[in-house]
Amino acid sequence: MKMKSLRWSDDFMYQIILNHDRTYDGKFLTCVKSTGIYCLPSCPARKPLQKNIQFLPTEQAAIKAGFRICKRCRPDLFYRGENPDHTLFSEMLIRIRTNPDEIKSVTTMAKVCGISTTKLNELVRVHAHISPAELLCRERIHAASIALINANDRILDIGLSAGFDSEASFHRQFLCRMAMTPNAYRLLRESAKFSLKLPADYSAEDAWRYHLRDKNSLSERLEHQTLSRGLWVQGKPVLIHLTVDGGYAHCWWQDSDTLHQAGQLPAGVIIHQQVIRLLGLNTDISGFRSLTKSNKQVEKLLSPTRNIYIPLTATPFEALTWAIIGQQINLTFAASLRQALIELAGVEIPASDLKIHPTPLAISQLSPQQLSGIRFSRAKSEYLIAAAKAIVSGELNIDDLEFGSAIVAEKKLREIKGIGPWTARYTLMRGMGFADCVPVGDSGLHTALQQFYQLDKRPVAEEAERLMKPFIPFRTLATAYLWESLRKNHETES
């Protein structure tokens, strides 16, 4: 069979690759004789002299000629219809999680990925909404936390095995992310209580306000500054009590031997994970504040306001449920629908008059007629049941999405019927803790943007996206501050 010929001159194609022109990806390949690799025309790698390049029309022709794939532009993924950056980020995470001590620094990470540190910074920011250094730290602490629970090795050895360069560094960074020391974390194997060290500027006001959006809640209660609510632990409802006092958050619950089963995480570990979320303790306040030095819009947004820590729901599914319920209705009605759902499908918590938020399985077994009977619209009923069924079937692995790519997470969510940009991004914000989300379509956000920028009318979706760009890579926090500005204005007017 005669090989397909190219219709452009070598001079023309060489100019295309010098311009990194993506519109010619898939139309020809650049094969570098000196290195033996083949690249897409848009490949960011430094270009060799034209005399050292052979242009070929197809991937099959390049392979037949003895060339191998470029690890930077990944033409093999392009020809399979996969996004190279998505795959690169996923493969990088697998590499870090498999051998956390192998990657000693951000520079090493870039070399392992075959990209520049500039490209790495952008890749991690777009997909994880944090910096490469923060990603490394997060994954090292995760590896260390598993070892602390499952092994009896010295704490120093566990820290070194996870990639930390000293015991002091391990303790400092573990405390920062987990709000307790490694030794205290290890005690969660048996304990029925723990305390979390809070930032000096932390106030529980935002957390309590968020979790008690419904003043007559059946699932949460605040008495004497102690929040009581149920958490799912190994498939069982557990009533926890949480209070903030003297720079610490104290959590306790009724221990049960049934929660300690071989091969499963201890109750304390699971409850710790969810309490960190409920209090919003992984909010990067200092990173956002640092932008005030160079960003006038951030300075204007933050100057009149105290620091805000963004509370999350106990699980991603809770946030998704709330987002679907809250589509195109006001907060009061949404709260009443949520509680009606908990009354219908929630489970009573032992030794309490509270109920716990229903599981995906429980909601998947409801009929649209049952939800219509508690004032759900037909569309909301179908969307919520469809999402629950997708989770139960394994089509949507919602609990794992927060530890991967935000882009992939949003795409997966939006594949479910009835989940659009606002619902998906709200879930990413409040259910998964991604730091750079814009819930476009949110009425409160659009009103706050109008006031903040002193616009004549509320911005439409495209304009809201543009107006939020100055707050990259902290648009989730910026959204929280804009919502807070609305609340304060309302209180002033009242």
Describe the protein.
- α7 (132-150) crosses α8.
- The protein is globular.
- The chain is an alpha+beta fold and 494 residues long.
- The chain has helices at 10-18, 59-64, 75-79, 84-98, 106-113, 117-128, 132-150, 155-161, 167-178, 182-186, 205-211, 267-279, 285-290, 296-302, 316-325, 331-345, 360-364, 368-372, 378-393, 398-401, 406-414, 421-430, 443-452, 461-467, 475-493; strands at residues 29-32, 37-39, 53-56, 68-69, 193-197, 220-223, 226-233, 236-245, 248-253, 347-348, 355-356.
- It has a 5-stranded antiparallel β-sheet with strand order 5-9-8-7-6. Strands 3-1-2-4 form a 4-stranded mixed β-sheet.
- The protein is built from 25 helices and 11 strands.
- β10 and β11 form a beta hairpin.
- It folds into 3 domains: 10-79, DNA Methylphosphotriester Repair Domain, CATH 3.40.10; 83-189, Arc Repressor Mutant, subunit A; 316-493, Orthogonal Bundle (Endonuclease III, domain 1), CATH 1.10.340.
- The model has no long low-confidence stretch (mean pLDDT 92).
- It is 49% helix and 10% strand.
User: Distance between the terminal alpha carbons, to the nearest Å?
Assistant: 80 Å
Oligomeric description of these chains: single chain
Shape: globular
Count of the domains: 3
> Strand fraction band?
5-15%
pLDDT < 50 stretches: none
Strand order of the largest sheet: 5-9-8-7-6
Q: How many DSSP-defined strands?
A: 11
Helix content, binned percent: 40-55%
Largest β-sheet summary: 5 strands, antiparallel
Level-1 CATH class name of the largest domain: Mainly Alpha
Specify the CATH architecture of the largest domain.
Answer: Orthogonal Bundle
Radius of gyration: 26 Å
Task: Predict the CATH topology of the largest domain.
Answer: Endonuclease III, domain 1
User: By CATH's scheme, which homologous superfamily of the largest domain applies?
Assistant: Hypothetical protein, domain 2
Q: Indicate the mean pLDDT.
A: 92
Number of helices: 25
